[in-house]
Amino acid sequence: MELNHFSHPHPLLLVEDKSDQVREAYCSGCRELIQDSSYRCTDCKFFLHKACAELPGELDHPFHSQHPLVLYDKPQYDSPCVAFICSCCRKQKGEGFVYHCSTCKFDLDIQCALLPKLIVGDFPKLKHFSHQHSLLFIEKHCIESADQSCFACEDPISGPIYCCFDCRVFLHKKCTELPLVINHPSHRKHSLTLGPNPPPFSHSKHSLTLVPSPPPSSHSKHSLALLANYPHEKGCSCHLCSKLQKGFVYYCSPCEFSISIKYIFSDLFEAKIHEHPFTLLSRPMSFICDACGICGEYCMPYICTICNLVVHKDCISLPHTIKLRKHEHSIFHVYNFLKENEVRKRICRICRKDVSMEYGSYHCLDCDDYFVHVNCARDKDLWDNEIFEEEVNQKSSETLGEGKIKHFSHDHKLLPSDELKNCEYDCDGCRRSISTAFYHCAECNYFLHKCCAELPRKKKHWNAERVRTLNFKPIFGCYFCGFYCSGFCYVNDDDRAPIICIGCFEIPDYFTDHGHEHPLFFDHKFTRECSNCNEKKGKFRCEDNCEFVLCRRCIALPETAWYKHDGYKHDEHPLALTYYDDVHDSYQWFCDICEEPRDPKKWFYYCATCDYSCHSPCALGKYPYVKLGSPAKFVTHEHPLTFMKDNLRYHKCSKCGKSCKDAFLKCVESECKYVVHYLCQ
């Protein structure tokens, strides 16, 4: 049985027998492993699950009731990384089918679009007091993203849920079944009513009353003071917590008393970070938490009378051990208070601020100088939940003797060489000029830096959740720097996550001497305008807080560049990345390529020998790391395609019909007239 599918130019043949399937084949629709009947194109090695091939072209989906969703074979966004974020599970997908609403920019991946019991039949709805719209009940879901939390308790979404995807509201089923009225020992005068935070009363009419603190002997490091009806943080109404809480609270309007539901039913006082149990002191206090060093005002503390410790409720459940992505060892919570003869300065390896040794912190026992604030370590986005044991055999090349190697990226043997000819060659792995020892192929024009040839096949990035595998691609968009590239990249095994080129993969999260006098570090919660290019994507910030910020693209700019494209040429000397121009004559602040003015405070490329200067985008071009003219096989066409740039002759794209005025892929067969934009293929 054959099928003509919109996602592939050739007819697809239905294969029912599992034994006839190609081993380790992945569906181009859902990117999952083929394990049952499927449609396939033998010539192109293109596969589709039978269910994915029979998906409806339009879908009226309960998650997006305003407009129908249209099925596409790739993301509908014009960007180098060619990715989208599913509006349901919030996972970023690089390839595969997507249901898309162009009006609302709403996307659903295949797994979320076909959640059980949502496409056919009725599904339960709930009208809840906390939300204006009806909530859909989902018994089984694929929402595992860290940024999706329950609107009531703020815990991650798990188990059966009620949801409103239009408003991004989620509720655990158990949270929708909370009793509306309860009696609680923390407030014996009246019953407490369930409601959203903040509760329907204000603290503004209450005066501030400070009760004298107990004598210092009762707690050597803390001044415990009882406050009267004063919220410890603006916008927070919970009398038990130590920080701003959202979600639901139980409250008493006459007494203006409220407690977050996260603590209302909790009777577990055993701490993970301490050997003794803690006791709840049922009166609001002002104190400094021994576990995290953060001030707690007008909240009920937990105390250990044996060790004379006072902690927040949240700190009782702190994990004793945490594994961070950016550090090779586990870190442990410690109460190692500063000794009198110890004066070393300690810096948090996440926020780069001082760590006070008078209170608890996380410390690496293998690295004596590695400390992390407790509140910084709480961020689960930085946790490493995957155990990575690098295998001995996971090397990218095989040694053959006499210095020769067989690399996974090339069909022929590679020979060692240190003969450099004025940077005549570019490495096929990283696409940078070769200026150190390298390997080359005696049969074809293929070169690799020695360091690129020895890259590990498996590696983990400091800002990535999963282990990645070294791969070779003829052309791809790097998610980190945004450049189009050829050669080596690190990808997830299922090839669904954004691709990172090896140059960006080696960029550390903390470094010095990059156009700024102070060290820079990566802050994943921070985004501000880049100090160099003015893009609002700067995440590398100055350690000394002098407002200097760099984006990932500027961080990835090479120290030197050879300009030899677009009809111009300056290849006698390399162009050096220069961070500022101290020339006082403004008539020299022009780009020698585009002849437009330059900002002397912005980075540029410069040749001191020739007095040749240019904007960094002009020096690098749009495709600085793409190998032109090299044929490569793509699943969308039966013949090899080559990446080309032709500013003199315009071709028509075989997919969209528009002119190829920039770069395009062209069939190497002279009789075949197939030409396509890269984003269209």
Automatic annotation (TrEMBL):
Pfam family, one: C1_2
Gene Ontology molecular function terms on file: zinc ion binding
Keyword Metal-binding listed: yes
InterPro entries on file: C1-like_sf, DC1, PKC_DAG/PE, Vacuole_Formation_Reg, Znf_PHD
Gene3D superfamilies: 3.30.60.20
SUPFAM superfamilies, per the entry: Cysteine-rich domain (SSF57889)
UniProtKB keywords: Metal-binding, Repeat, Zinc, Zinc-finger
Transmembrane domains' residue ranges: none
Residues of the Phorbol-ester/DAG-type domain: 9-60
Name this polypeptide is given: Phorbol-ester/DAG-type domain-containing protein
Provenance organism: Rubroshorea leprosula
